[in-house]
Design goal:
The chain is an alpha/beta fold. The chain has 4 helices and 12 strands.
Length: 194
């Protein structure tokens, strides 16, 4: 195991503990800032995610956005592949998909221009630590080669880390939304006020 792999494993373990505590204390309006951000991009094809474990819940903001344009959720086609995105609407029938993730019973695929990205930890410069499968990194790299694609991390404040062990293949976030704030990142990775 390389030092970077060990560092990422430790960073994930620490972040999962912080996220669990934040999730237990979270209120019902955790997605209020996310909904306000998404309102600026009404009608733009976007993808969110169905929360698992202790992830912050984007569903209220996604439901609001679905009234104005296409909203999708990720579908994992297989290991080491970019994600696909299937159109999602509130209350649509879902089935178990690959890797146990719920997906639409009859998926209608499209490419989003805005991706709400789940994460384990983030830093103040747009860095993101995911679960380690590289799905979002591969996907964002592919989408960004085709067109401008906005990556918005969504997390609890407590998931912030002072620094993260990052690799050149880790795709940066353009914006980070928490239950209390919004961080925008410029091309140098420095935070900017919304």
């Amino acid at each position: 195991m390389t030092d970077l792999t060990k560092d990422k494993t430790k960073a994930r373990k620490d972040a999962f503990a912080r996220r669990k505590t934040a999730h237990a204390a979270s209120g019902k309006d955790a997605a209020a800032h996310l909904a306000a951000v998404l309102a600026r991009y009404r009608g733009m094809p976007l993808s969110g995610y169905l929360p698992i474990r202790t992830e912050i819940d984007p569903l209220p903001a996604m439901a609001e956005a679905a009234a104005h344009g296409p909203v999708g959720i990720p579908v994992i086609p297989g290991p080491d592949q970019p994600l696909n995105f299937a159109r999602w609407t509130p209350d649509m029938p879902l089935v178990d998909g690959p890797f146990g993730a719920a997906i639409p019973a009859e998926p209608e695929f499209f490419e989003p221009e805005l991706v709400i990205v789940p994460l384990v930890a983030f830093d103040a410069y747009g860095g993101r630590l995911g679960y380690g499968g590289g799905f979002y990194d591969r996907t964002l790299e592919l989408l960004r080669q085709r067109r401008p694609t906005l990556a918005i991390g969504f997390a609890f404040d407590q998931q912030e880390a002072e620094s993260l062990p990052l690799e050149p293949t880790d795709q940066p976030l353009d914006m980070l939304v928490t239950q209390s704030r919004v961080l925008n990142f410029n091309g140098t990775g420095a935070p900017q006020e919304p």
